[in-house]
Structure formats: C-alpha cells, structure tokens
Amino acid sequence: MTVYRPTRSPYYHFDFTLRGQRYHGSTGLTSKTEARSYEAKVRREAASGEKAKPQITLDEAIGLWWAEKGKFEANSATTKGQGKRLIKALGGGRPLTDIESDDFKKFIARRRGSVTNRGTLLSNATVNREIELAARIWRHVAPDYAVSTIDWSKLKLKEAAERVRELSEEEEARFWAAAPDEDLKAVAEFALLSGQRRTSIITLLWRQVDFDAMRATVRIKGGAWHTFPLTPRLVAIIANQPRVAAQVFTYVCARPSPPRGDRPRRLRGERYPFSKQGWYRKWYAWLERACIEDFRFHDLRHTRGTRMLRATGNLKAVQKLLGHTDIATTARYAHALEDDVRTAMISGESRTIPDPAPRLVSKNGRNPRGSA
Q: For 221-271, how does the pLDDT look when each residue is reduced to its tens digit (9 = 90+)?
C-alpha cells in the first residue's frame, strides 16, 4: 500500500519507489481519496523528472542551515542549542516531509512546561524563537529538498507586550556604587550610554571600531550589521580596555576552569573575552547589593532609549541609535514624552484654573440665599 495513515497522525502519507529512488512523506490531507490523488501527482512528477526533490532528514537540514547560515549569526550559540533541542524532540533521522504541525504542537506543549535555570517557566517568546528557527530551516532547504507544508503562523504563541523599564536616578547611584569590578562596569556603562544589546557589545571587535570617525559597527538580531556613533565617553571606555584579544571587552578570570566544547581552558589571572552568559551570576549579585529589583541587563538599553527620547523628542534619532528597522518598535519609548506632556498639563492647570467662586455670607454668618 503506497497511501496509508500512521497511527499517531491525522494525515495520510505516501511511500513508493521509482527507478530505485524512494519517495515518501505526508500528503497533509485527511481524506484518503484526496491523498491518493496527491500521491498520483507525486508519481507523475517523479516519472517526468519535474518538481521531484530528494528527501532530507531534520539532522541533515539543520546541519546544512548551520553551515550556510547559522554559524555566521550573532546569536549562533543560542540557535545551536535550539537546533539540538529540535533534533532531540522531533527525531533527527526523520525526513522533513514526515514532520507535521502536530509534531510541533506537541513540542510546544512540552517546552511551555519547562523550567529555566532561574526556576521560572519558559516564556512564550522563548518557545516562539525556537519555532521560528524551525521555520527558517524549512525555508532554507525547501528550494532543493522535499519538505512538509506547515502553517507556522498558527503555531505562534501569544507574547506579553515587552515592558520598558527605566533606571531611576536613585537606582543608578546605587547601581554604580555596587559595581563588582571595572571590567563588568565598563560593559554596563557602554550599554547604558550606547543603547546597544548585550550580545552586540561583548562580541564587539577592535576592527569594528573606527576611532577617527568616532563610530562602531556591531552585529544585531538577525545577523545584520548596525553602525552607530560614539560619544567622547564611549571612545574613552573602549580606549581604556586592554588590547589582549580580538574582542574589545574582556575580564580577568577569578576562578580557573577546564576546557569545554565552546571555549578553551581558563587560567586564573588571565584575561578572556566575555561569554554570553557566564557572568550572569555576578550581574544578579550586583543588582542585589544595589537593592534594585526587576531589572535586566537589556533594561540598560531601554533606559538609554527613554532618556534620549525625553531629552530630544526625536523618535527617528532614537530609532537610528537602537537599530530598529520598524519605528513602531521605537514607539514603545513614547511613554517618556507622554509623561512630560502630562506633567506640563498638570502644571498648566494650576496656573489657568481660577479659584472656586467665593461664597456669599451675610453679616450674621448665614448664606443670604438660605442654603446650607
């Protein structure tokens, strides 16, 4: 039988061999009659040599995407981990034509119940990024290989609107007073003044800094390049970093560690580039000493965007600095202008609204109109 329905799938699959080449996969149809028509069409295409594409497994597809795209992205370490999770959950040896929407729905259900290293449930946004990676892989190999048809938009979970948390003046004073060391302090100050993302800053290379033109170029989300101007203070922060590696920002190792798959051995007293997550413990300890709650490193970027918009009122300038492709993203910081307008309105009210009309009182202390 060349058309059949697997036990755990609502869709009929096809499986036949033609001239020594195996053709198999999901039809994406729940009707056996329609599935047979679909299978006949695939046979005709295979026989004529038109539109017939070879099979590729999930493991092979991820490997191909990684070699041609993934390893060049700024957040390559994150996407590499996401790819491993997809292989483990869906089966690396399965052809992409066999992996259906229901498989991803089950994957999403399991991931939503996962707990992070900090003891909190995995956010919908994190799960969405993993599904988006799968969609990118499908699109990347689709021109040359057979893949299943999946409506990725129906798999997306609803995400909470991203808050814009600003560091207050009182918090900032405590923040700098509690800084653990000059190395991490430099990274944090650069983030607060430049508004760039954490990964962009710690992967900034010396060759990406133009001291003469006073500008720097960094990798941003999606792998694109973003150039932004440097103020004299930002130039000073960079210039004061020891030039011991290709990366601008490095730290002095306090605790030695053996080699790992993603990095060489660490020796105490030696300088190394910042990893993407290795300094989180020191960051949270810093916030605890400063008595600052509900604050992420990314909120330094939010603080810069909010302060700049409040000072200039120029939404396009903030968009340019932060590297937003859509000004609607930058518009989140408009609350700063709303606060200023509200303050001005309240101030204006106190000067323009007249005092209540005085009550008329007779000489004996009674209201002449006889009312209370």
A: 767 899 999 999 999 999 999 999 999 999 998 888 887 766 778 888 899
- Same domain for 190 and 121: no
Residue of 163, 228, 164 whose CA lies nearest to 201:
228
Partners of 15 in the beta sheet? 24
Q: Which residue has the higher pLDDT, 137 or 163?
A: 137
pLDDT in tens, 98-125: 899 999 999 999 888 776 665 567 788 8
Contact 167, 299 (CB under 8 A): yes
Same domain, yes or no, for 15 and 116? no
Q: Kindly state whether residue 324 falls inside one of the protein's structural domains.
A: no
Whether residue 314 lies inside any domain: the answer is: no
CA–CA distances in Å: residue 66 to residues 50, 100, 134, 145 = 29, 22, 12, 16
- The answer to whether the beta carbons of residues 300 and 201 sit under 8 Å apart is no
* Residue 301 and residue 196 in contact, taking contact as beta carbons nearer than 8 Å: yes
Chosen domain end from 129, 155, 181: 155
Tell me the residue range of the domain where 115 lies. 58-155
